Amino acid sequence: MKPRRRYAMRTPPPTPPGTEVAGQRELLAVREVVHAFLNADRPDEAFQFALDRVSPVVGAAFSSVYLLDGASELMRLGAAHNWPDHLRPWLADVRVRVGFGPSGEAASERRVIEVPDVFADADLEDWQEVARELGFRALVSLPLQNGQASVGAVTFYFRSWDDFTIERRGLLRLVADLMAAATEKSRLVDRVRRAESAAVEALTELDRQYIAVAHARRDARSLTAAATAALQPHISGLPGRAMSAAQRVLDDLALAAGLEDGSAPIAADQFDPRLPLRDALRQVAESGTAVHLIGEEPIHDMPLVRGDAEKLTVALARLLERAAAVDGVTELRASVAVSDGRVEYRVPGAEGDDLAWKLAAAIAERLNGRLTVESAATGDTTVASLPLGI
Predict the structure, then answer these.
(1) CB 146 within 8 A of CB 170
(2) 18 in a structural domain
(3) Going by DSSP bridges, is the β-strand pair 292-298/331-339 parallel, antiparallel, or unpaired?
(4) CB contact set of 126 (below 8 Å; sequence gap of 6+)
(5) Is residue 70 classed as helix, strand or coil in its secondary structure?
(6) Number of helices followed by number of strands (H, E) in the chain
(7) In terms of domains, do 175 and 224 share one?
(8) Residues 32 and 159 in one domain
(9) Are residues 283 and 175 in the same domain?
(10) Which pLDDT value is given to residue 224?
(11) Do residues 118 and 139 make contact, with C-beta atoms less than 8 angstroms apart?
């Protein structure tokens, strides 16, 4: 076995996200909702604004946000739009059990539940009487997620399923991501007020949700423009370090959009495969953190790689940042090796919906490579595998 050289550095926190919708009316709603989420003092204020603004745009008769109540298996009502007047006095007492009904299933299974016709689904027989009384026929329930954790669900009720377009589906997914981000932003702000770094973490968490939506849309350029227009006015007022972090969010959004639509150029550099890992370690180390970062590499000569060294460095840096941001991590090891005509980089961490994973995966794909996850008793490891002749 050949000896490996080790080198250690220090590391920082995670990274970000995006947005996308087609149609002038939907885009205007997006910008207003983003603005509300950035400026609301409490999540429930933003939830209410989002429901009131988005429900008419998508044609929903009424809508609700249900939030997990601590460690309980019940979700409480967080916001409601246009519910029948005779039910309003009882809304504060509404509880939805996780795993039961469309909203409960969306929260527990962490997937979108669409019911085009309640009366045509035998499994929803218990809901048909409720639907008849309230006057709805179709519904869409979307999970509210922060990374791998579920925080509740948002449900839109429709009198019919007519004209439910792809754009409107996209808008609902975006609103759900923003709502999930708002709950996390609130938690971060409370913690950061005690730690005096609220702005950076709140922006990071919110933007992470934006890019997850942007990656799934076709017109990434329009999405980036919308997100940039919403965020740019807020950046100039941030303190220096927070401003740098926020600006990098916009840079990552632009790169993600360029990779998505093919406009981002891919260089044909020739480089030692150890250099991108070293540069990535150096970048995250310069941010400063308590996490001890260790790089492992062969000491013998390695075959050169042909590809875009700068973008590969970005991918590795984002994977390192998200791994270092996991609670309780004090030491982090990353490695590089060449085997069977491919170069492999290994960084702790599992697949996710955050910007770091999305961006790293997009870069790997453009370099004719891939990201995979290996699971072991000691934890998950993300493997970035690329051909030597990218």
Answers:
(1) no
(2) no
(3) parallel
(4) none
(5) coil
(6) 11, 14
(7) yes
(8) yes
(9) no
(10) 57
(11) yes
* pLDDT average, residue stretch 249-258: 74
Looking at residue 250, its pLDDT comes to: 72
Query: Span 268-274, mean pLDDT?
Result: 92
Which two structure tokens, joined as six digits, stand for 339? 């085997």
Distances (CA, A) of 321 to 43, 77, 154, 172, 372: 27, 35, 30, 30, 18
Average pLDDT, the chain: 79
245 with 305, same domain: the answer is no
Q: What is the pLDDT of residue 161?
A: 84
Q: Tokens 């989420």 appear where?
A: 37
By residue range, what is the domain housing residue 110? 24-260
Q: What pLDDT score does 332 carry? A: 92
Those residues with Cβ within 8 angstroms of residue 204's Cβ, 6 or more apart along the chain or in another chain: 13, 14, 15, 16, 245, 249
Nearest residue to 201 via CA among 186, 211, 213 = 186
Residue 169, C-beta contacts closer than 8 angstroms, at least 6 positions apart: 140
Report the C-alpha gap between 307 and 315 in whole angstroms.
13
Q: Which residue has the tokens 């044909």?
A: 268
What is the number of structural domains in the chain? 2
CA 332 centroid distance within chain: 23
- Going from the C-alpha of 159 to that of each of 77, 140, 164, the distances in angstroms are 21, 12, 12
Burial of 272 (0-12, 13-18, 19+ CB in 10 A): middle
SS (H, E, C) 333-386: EEEEEEECCEEEEEEECCCCCCHHHHHHHHHHHHCCCEEEEEEECCEEEEEEEE
**Does 47 score more than 90 pLDDT?**
no
Mean pLDDT of 307-331: 90
At 120, list the tokens: 């045509």
State the CATH number of the domain containing residue 201: 3.30.450.40
Distances (CA, A) of 27 to 18, 36, 226, 231, 376: 13, 14, 8, 15, 44
